[in-house]
């Protein structure tokens, strides 16, 4: 039984040695794996010494001292190999860091392209359709209603009102695509204006604490922050039915911090939201914008209410 066990052990050791050596090329000849593979080779040789002693009175190498020194060398090789193996982990860390940086750059490029397309479309819409509608309004206002019968007067009035509504809608669409107030008056004013318009028809009075020096923020950070905050407010109003909404913005050290909360119905799957896998309600877009600026976020979802904090490094 001992002979068969040693034979099986020797074969297993030999297979492990061959497999370890075959991986050297895949590890790009990393010194740690070469040392560990060398230790496997010596372990296979040592197992051969043990196996040979069962069949011959004298071993291949008669001195037990040689076998002992082989064991010592195996231990040294394994120790040094394990110490150097940290290079493999360092390489994996560098690869992961490069992957995340590339992912962030791609997200940033996509969002910048999207924002630029929004701006171009808003400008074309405003500059193209705006004058046309204004011209129609002027033409309608130039008509003398006294020269028309009552039916035509009503038609002209309705057309005039519809033109007014179209101009207002056009301005609203254009502003949503590319908010001019953000560019002209800054982040704080843009958020206050948006919140005032959004919650004007509700019983909610948002609590806004926007204590931040906007000179410290890049244009990309201001634009993404505005999009994130407006999306959160829209979500609260449409889905959470809150009675209170709170937004805080501040600079803490080298971080720009956004803290948002409401006392609404909350979210059923905060774990999916944390991982960026929650579908709907624009949260994936929010998370993508945060990642594109190398930002992080933390979610506090309870039975009643929802809160999320964002942390963006200042450039």
From TrEMBL:
Keywords associated with the record: ATP-binding, Kinase, Membrane, Nucleotide-binding, Phosphoprotein, Transferase, Transmembrane, Transmembrane helix, Two-component regulatory system
Listed GO cellular component terms?
membrane
> The Histidine kinase/HSP90-like ATPase domain covers which part of the protein?
226-314
Looking up InterPro entries in the UniProt record yields:
HATPase_C_sf, HATPase_dom, Sensor_HK_TwoCompSys, Sig_transdc_His_kin_sub3_dim/P
Q: Which reaction equation describes what this protein catalyses?
A: ATP + protein L-histidine = ADP + protein N-phospho-L-histidine
Residues crossing the lipid bilayer are: 6-24, 31-49, 69-89
Please give the Gene Ontology molecular function terms for this protein.
ATP binding; phosphorelay sensor kinase activity; protein dimerization activity
Q: Which domain of life is it from?
A: Bacteria
Q: What is its EC number?
A: 2.7.13.3
Q: What class of enzyme is it?
A: transferase
Residue intervals of the Signal transduction histidine kinase subgroup 3 dimerisation and phosphoacceptor domain: 118-180
- Give a yes or no for keyword rRNA-binding in this entry: no
Q: PANTHER family per the record?
A: NITRATE/NITRITE SENSOR PROTEIN NARX-RELATED, NITRATE_NITRITE SENSOR PROTEIN NARQ
Q: What is this protein's name?
A: histidine kinase
Q: Which organism is it from?
A: Mariniphaga anaerophila
């Amino acid at each position: 039984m001992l002979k068969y066990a040693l034979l099986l052990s020797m074969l297993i050791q030999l297979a492990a040695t061959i497999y370890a050596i075959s991986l050297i090329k895949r590890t790009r000849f990393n010194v740690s794996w070469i040392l560990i593979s060398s230790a496997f080779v010596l372990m296979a040789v040592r197992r051969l010494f043990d196996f040979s002693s069962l069949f011959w009175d004298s071993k291949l190498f008669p001195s037990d001292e040689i076998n002992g020194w082989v064991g010592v060398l195996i231990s040294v090789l394994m120790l040094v190999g394990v110490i150097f193996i940290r290079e493999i982990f360092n390489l994996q860390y560098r690869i992961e860091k490069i992957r995340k940086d590339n992912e962030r750059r791609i997200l940033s490029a996509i969002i910048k392209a999207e924002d630029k397309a929004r701006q171009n479309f808003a400008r074309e819409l405003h500059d193209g359709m705006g004058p046309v509608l204004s011209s129609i309004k002027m033409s309608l206002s130039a008509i003398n209603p006294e020269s028309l019968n009552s039916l035509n007067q009503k038609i002209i009035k309705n057309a005039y009102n519809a033109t007014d509504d179209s101009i207002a809608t056009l301005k609203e669409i254009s502003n949503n695509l590319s908010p001019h107030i953000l560019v002209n008056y800054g982040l704080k004013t843009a958020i206050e204006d948006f919140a005032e318009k959004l919650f004007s028809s509700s019983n909610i009075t948002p609590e806004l604490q926007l204590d931040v020096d906007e000179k410290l923020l890049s244009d990309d950070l201001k634009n993404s922050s505005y999009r994130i905050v407006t999306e959160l407010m829209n979500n609260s109003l449409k889905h959470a039915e809150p009675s209170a909404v709170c937004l805080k913005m501040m600079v803490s050290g080298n971080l720009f911090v956004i803290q948002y909360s409401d006392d609404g119905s909350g979210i059923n799957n905060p774990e999916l939201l944390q991982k960026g896998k929650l579908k709907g309600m624009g949260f994936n877009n929010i998370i993508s914008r945060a990642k594109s600026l190398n930002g992080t976020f933390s979610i506090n979802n309870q039975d009643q209410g929802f809160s999320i904090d964002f942390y963006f490094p200042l450039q």
